[in-house]
Design brief:
With about 120 residues, the protein is mainly α. Helices cover about 60% and strands about 0% of the residues.
Amino acid sequence: MAESQFVSLIRTWAAVAWADGKIADAERVALQRLIDGAELSADDRAIANQFLAAPVELGAGLAALAPDSRRGIYKAACRMAAVDREVTDSERSLLVRLRDGLGLAVDDAREIEASIAGVTAS
């Protein structure tokens, strides 16, 4: 069974949160609020909650999303990386991988990053 688009989105944000090998309290709280507030099936909620317990890899198929969705995912990932007020080198590296996986132009990514304090990946 294919993963729902919303679970894929949560997976992406969780991968950013785990990029430095740990999930900060602020990142965990932000993800938990997202999961708790989402309209998910019981199975999808259980899958999403697993993302809080162990490191997560980026999902495939990101470039197939609509352009606005790809920009939105990248912006949300940048915010997730900065939520603990520390964007590590590993988080920056993951943002570059995400940017490439989403098929975003470097200039578009830089524009998004400039709107979020502390984020410079591209």
